[in-house]
Amino acid sequence: xxxxxxxxxxxxxxxxxxxxxxxxxxxxxxxxxxxxxxxxxxxxxxxxxxxxxxxxxxxxxxxxxxxxxxxxxxxxxxxxxxxxxxxxxxxxxxxxxxxxxxxxxxxxxxxxxxxxxxxxxxxxxxxxxxxxxxxxxxxxxxxxxxxxxxxxxxxxxxxxxxxxxxxxxxxxxxxxxxxxxxxxxxxxxxxxxxxxxxxxxxxxxxxxxxxxxx
Length: 214
Fold this sequence. Notes:
This protein is mostly helical. It has helices at residues 2-25, 53-57, 71-84, 90-112, 118-128, 132-149, 159-172, 177-192, 202-213. Helix 1 (2-25) packs parallel to helix 4, helix 3 packs antiparallel against helix 4 and helix 7 (159-172) runs parallel beside helix 9 (202-213).
């Protein structure tokens, strides 16, 4: 029964993360206006906001303008729902919270190649917050790194990618770094191929992290 409730809570968190990411990439307030269709801007009643159920009931289309809804929203709700079922103690709660937070960052990065800067620092806190000297040192280096990246004309990785890689290493250890990065790179290569345009890498890093955790 607990697993069921954790799944339900997880789908709600996934739905919220998706909605907040859309608002972030579109420059909208996180609080106002109420939930609405991104195309016709019609306000959505409560029955259209149920995770998974509403998507299936609406057959993946807006009830009003019939625009096809992104299947990514359904994928996010299901994935974070499953992720939440792995919570069993304080450590797993910390890891799942960290993964959900970076999932939100991944959704933002996928569209805008950026995400709210507070995620890097909150991620650090979740990673080493129980070790204040190390946490404060990493906050300093992270801040310096972000400043340096703004003046680097052609970085091979985004500063958010570096933040995520560092935090993953702090949480899971060096022994998991290789397999995790290999999986993320493989998914990115299969999806984007030889595309020379700048691509978001945080979604693949996050998806790989979730897969290895599960």
